[in-house]
Design a protein that fits this description.
11% strand, 18 helices, binds protoporphyrin IX containing FE, three-stranded antiparallel sheet, single chain, 12 strands, alpha+beta, five-stranded mixed sheet
Length: 455
Amino acid sequence: MTTDGRALRLPPGPQGAPLFGLAFQVLRDPLATLTRLARQYGDIVCIRVFKQHRILLNLPGYVEQVTIVQHAKFHKSTLTKDVTERLLGQGLLISEGDFWRRQRRLAQPAFHRSRITEYGATMVECAETHSKTWRDGEVRDMAQEMMAMTLDIAVRTLFGTRLAGDVGNVGHSLGFLMRYSLRKARSPLKIPENWPTPANRRAKRETEFLDSLVYSIIAERQKNEASGAPNPHNDLLAMLMSAMDEDGTQMTPKQLRDETMTLFLAGHETTALTLSWTWYLLSENPTAESRLHEELRTVLDGRAPQVSDLERLPYLKAVISEVLRLYPAAYTIARTSIAPCNVGGYDFPVGTTFVMSQWVMHRDARYFEEPEAFRPERWLDGLENRLPAGAYFPFGDGPRRCIGQGFALLELGLVVARIAQQFRFKLVPGHRVVLEPLVTLRAKYGIRMTIHSRS
Ligand code: HEM
């Protein structure tokens, strides 16, 4: 019903009895179910989940309306908040309004182009340090390897430190917490978090583990400052710590923790996944792999890549664009309306949740020929500029577009270049790569690959 009592005119969508089944399918297998609904019902689909409506948008123009044109009428959705708030608190990813605007302004300088190019050398150095331990013929889980590498890069560049201890477990902790939060958000049975169930106890332990890493980063810096030693740091953490409100107060320890945790996690997980999907897709597409190797050999002639080389490596850029198209680490974004809005000719009341899926849109044959094929070549003739806004959005769009996009693209370019110069990877025969769409798009059993040295 609308506020004046008229019946709401809703977009097409599945009707009738098996709705409970549908809600279950969306939650259990979002990729296949959202794709099927889009193909069956068209550009705007109403999915009824119990008493609520979720609106799936499958036309670039509608995505543009929500993320850019009418962005002020939307907040991040409760779907996102339910599964991330426990860990990220009121960090940049989910905060709203004036508070979000202030925090975004504070963090932005650390991501300016001139600033992130300074991180290039560290990115290449980390790729070299991690890959130095790889032996020809050895089998490794590339998902895990990439997680350790990007964590090192994020912590060294953004927080000016190195993590000690058992950092290999960060990926596992995060995986568990995503599964735990999704299960809780999806379950009609709300068991309080303080009940000592095995899952609640483990969630507490994993959160404490991640908290301890983040607090150790902050504490180390505070100790340095308290000692009066000259502070050589000019990084993101320094900016967050010295940031003052208009009234002269600093961020509270909790706010500092939330921002640091958000950037700590968002700053490495998605990039690690994109890198591991890159090795997987190259191994499945030897022609593209050879073309990439040839480009790297011709342009770099064996020396380590620098930031300035990237513009002379168009095929490398195309490979990364194509990986982000087919395996977008963030495979859906969602918003909830905070004001009445009209999208696609339908009026929606406050509180309507809109889902926009990169996975679905990036596989739409109207915008991408042979959408299932891995064809980096498609990006070589300016496709990105010809696509309508909202057709390709691996980093989201509008004011809430990923703050780390430039950082991630630089890291992806340099790490793929440095590693592909020296290694090829082949999926271990019989290893099943199974997608696990949690908050991010993971590989359920990892990506086990044999490492081949190219020297
Ligand atoms: C391949 C890598 C990455 C992908 C695919 C990715 C994707 C995204 C997407 C889709 C959003 C928008 C979410 C929405 O609209 O609801 C986002 C936001 C965000 N990302 Fe990334 N991201 C990546 C790397 C990074 C990195 C390296 C950082 C930090 C160093 C980062 C930090 C953030 C933050 C803080 C936000 C929230 C921005 C805001 O709302 O103001 N991301 N990311």
